[in-house]
C-alpha cells in the first residue's frame, strides 16, 4: 500500500472518529442535564458544572491526524506516548474549563452558645446557665465543636480550647469581667449583636447550631428579627430561658402628670412602682429641688406586682416645673438606681420673679409691689437659691438684694450668668449694706456681668482708712499658721487703696512694728517687710494692742480699725478698759481666733467691746479670705448715706408715664463706676454716680440698682405712688421673654440615643430652609454640663440632631435657630425647647424572664426550646454539602503534562542506539 493511500485512509479514520465524538457530544452533552456529569467515589461526589466545555475533546481526532503527518524521526512507541500525553492535556483543559468540582458531605455539628451576663441575670441564674454549657461540653461528640459568646450591651467570644482538649468554663464573675470592666455595658442586653458575632464564629464544614441562654429582657436590638434572619446564614437557633426567681426589687417605672396644669389649682401625679414582693418603703416627691409642699413624704405599703401611687401637688408659679419621685428605705433592694423617676411639665401663668433677699424679713416691700403688678414672686433667702439651671429656668427675672458674696456660692453665680446669657433671663442686683463692694462682690462672676464696677472712685471729701494688723508670732504659730497669716497680711495690702494707711505689729511676749504706719501704695516695700516676720516666743495681748492704739489714734482717717490674730491665750487684765478707750476714739477692733487653742470668750469680749466682729477659724488656709472680707467691710468708702434726688440721664421705655423728677429723695446708695459702652446709665445721683444702669449680656439683661429696695435708704420711695409701677415696668421690659419665635421640638429616645426634630415654617406656611441650628443639651440635672450638637437639615424645613446620652438623669434641650441677614451676619430668629428623661438603664426596669419572646425566637430560628445536649449535637436529616472547585488542580496537571510532552519529544526513549548510549 502506497504511503499516500495510507494517509488518506488514516485521515478517513480520524474523520470518522471526529463524527463519532461529535454524536456522543450531542447525545450526552447538548441534550443531557447537568446532573448526568456527576459521579460518586465513596463519600466524595465529583461533578462537571459546565459540560459543554467537553467540546475541546473533539480536537483529539485532529491530534491523531497530525501525528500521522509528523516528519519527526521518533520511534512509534514514543509517538504513542506523546499522543497520549497530548490527549491527556486536552482532557485536563476540558475539565478545568468545564468546572470540575468535588462535593463533600458532612454531619458534623458546631454549636455556639450565647450566654447572657447582663445585670438583669443574677449570679445564681448565671451559674445555672453555666451548668447548661458545661453539660453540653461533656456530651459533645469528638468530631463536633462548641464555642461560647458572652454578651450584655456588647458581645465577646470566650477564649476556650477548640477540639478535643479539656477546658473549664469561667465562673459567673470571670465571665462578666471578660466582657467589660465598664459598668454601663453590663446594664444593657443586646441579643441581636451577640447573634451577629456568633455567625462569624462558625468554622466551615459544620452544621450550624446556636443556643441562646438568656432571660429574654433585651434593651437594644431586635431578637425576633434576627432570629428570622438566622436561616439565611444556615443557623438554627434554640433558646434556654434563665428561669430565676425575681430578686427583691422595687422600681419606679413611670411618673405621669396631667396634660394641663394651672397655677394655684391642685392636681394629682401618678407614679407606677413595681415591687417583686410585698414590702414597706418611703416615698418622696420633689418639686424642683424642694420637697412637694402638699404631699411630699409618706410611708407606703407596696404589694407584689404593679402599684399605683397618687400624690397631690400645686404649682405656685408658671413655667417649666420638674417633679422627681424617689422611693427609699427599701430592704434588700438589688438595684438602687431604678428607685426614682422624673417628669417635667409646662405651666402657663403670670410672669415669675425669684427674689433673693439677704434680709428676708424685710422683703415684703418689693414683693408686695410686684404682686400688685401681676407678678408671681418667690421670696427666698440666699440659702434657698436654686441648685440647677433647670430650676432657675422657671423664673422670668431674678432679683438679688442686699446679700454678701460669701452667702452666694460660685456655682450659684455661674448659674445666674448662664441664666442671663443662654436663657435670656433678666437679673437685677440691688444694693444695701451688703451690696456691691460692701458685700465683697469686687472681682466676682457677678461683677463681670453687671454694667458697673465695684471699685468706685473715692470722693475727694472722703477721708482714707487707717488699719493696724496685730499678728501673733508666738512659737505655736510656726509653719503653716505663720505663712497663712503673712498671706492674709499681703491680701489686705492688695485690697486697700493707695492712700489708705496700714501698720503691721507682730508680737510674742513683746510687740514689734514690722510695718510702720504708712500709705498702702508702697506695696513692694510692705510685702518685703511682711516676709521678714518669724515665729517664736510666748503670747501677750495688752502690749501690742496698746501699741496699735497709740499709733492709730494720732493719724487722720475716716475709719480706724484693728484686727487681732492669735491662736493662744493671754492675761485679760486691763484689756476691757483699753478697748473701751479705743472705741471712744472711733477705733474698732476685730478678733480672729485660729484653731481650738485660742480663748474664744476673751476674743469675743474684745470684739464685742470694740465694735468689731469675732471670727473663729479652724483652718489656717481661710485666713486670707477672712482678712480680705474684713478689709472690704471696713473700707466703706463705697457707702454714701445722705439725702439726694434721683436724676434721669438716659432714655428707657419702662420709664414712660413715670416722672422721675417728682420722685422722692433716696437716703443712700453704694458708689460704683459705670462700665464703658454698651453699658447704659438710666438714673444717677446728683453727683453723677450710677443709681440704675443696665446692659445686654448674651440673650438677657443685667441691671444694677445701687440703692436698696427696703426701708433703709428707700423709705420715702416705698410710699411713692409710682413705686410699684416703676418696678413693675422695669421687670416687664427686662424679664425673660419669648422675643424670638418659639418653634416646637419633638424629642424621642431609643435606649441611650436621643433624636430631636424641629419642623420650621415661614409665616406663609412654607418650609423654612434657611436656618443654621444648634442644639444645647444640659444635664444631667441639677448640676450637669452643657454640650453643643449641630442640627442638620434632613428634609424641607426639617432639622434633626442625634446624640448619645453618656449619663443617666434628666436633660433639658434648647435649640437656637439663626438666619443670615443682608450683611452676612447670623441673626437668631427662633428657639425651641424640650426635655428628655433617662433616669436609669432599661435593664433595671423588668425582672421576670420574657419566656414568650424566647419561645417565638426558637420557632422563628427553626430550633428547640430548652434543648437537651443530645438534641444540640443531633444533625437529624441535615447533611452539609461542601463543594470544592478542582479546576486549579486540572490546570496544574495540564501544565505538568505539557512539560512532560516537551521532554518526550526531545529525548529518544525507544531507540536502541540511544538506550545503549545511555547505558
Structural notes for this entry:
This protein has 919 residues and is of the alpha/beta class. It has six domains: 3-104 and 886-917, no CATH class; 108-244 and 852-878, 3-Layer(aba) Sandwich (Rossmann fold), CATH 3.40.50; 250-345, Immunoglobulins (Immunoglobulin-like), CATH 2.60.40.10; 352-457 and 640-734, Rossmann fold (3-Layer(aba) Sandwich); 465-634, von Willebrand factor, type A domain (Rossmann fold), CATH 3.40.50; 743-843, Immunoglobulin-like, CATH 2.60.40. Helices cover 28% and strands 31% of the residues. The strands form ten sheets. An eight-stranded mixed β-sheet has the order 18-17-19-20-34-33-32-29, with helices on both faces. It starts with a helix and ends with a helix. The model is unreliable at 458-463 (pLDDT under 50).
Largest sheet: 8 strands, mixed
Query: How many individual domains?
Result: 6
**Average pLDDT level:** 84
The helix-and-strand class reads alpha/beta
C-alpha termini separation:
38 Å
Please give the count of helices.
24
Q: Are there runs of 5+ residues with pLDDT below 50, and where? A: 458-463
Helix content: 25-40%
Number of strands: 45
CATH architecture of the largest domain: 3-Layer(aba) Sandwich
Strand arrangement, major sheet: 18-17-19-20-34-33-32-29
Over the alpha carbons, how many angstroms does the gyration radius reach? Answer: 46 Å
Shape: elongated
Query: What is the C-level CATH assignment of the largest domain?
Result: Alpha Beta
Q: At the fourth CATH level, what is the homologous superfamily of the largest domain?
A: Class I glutamine amidotransferase (GATase) domain
Name the beta content range.
Answer: 25-35%
What is the third-level CATH name, the topology of the largest domain?
Rossmann fold
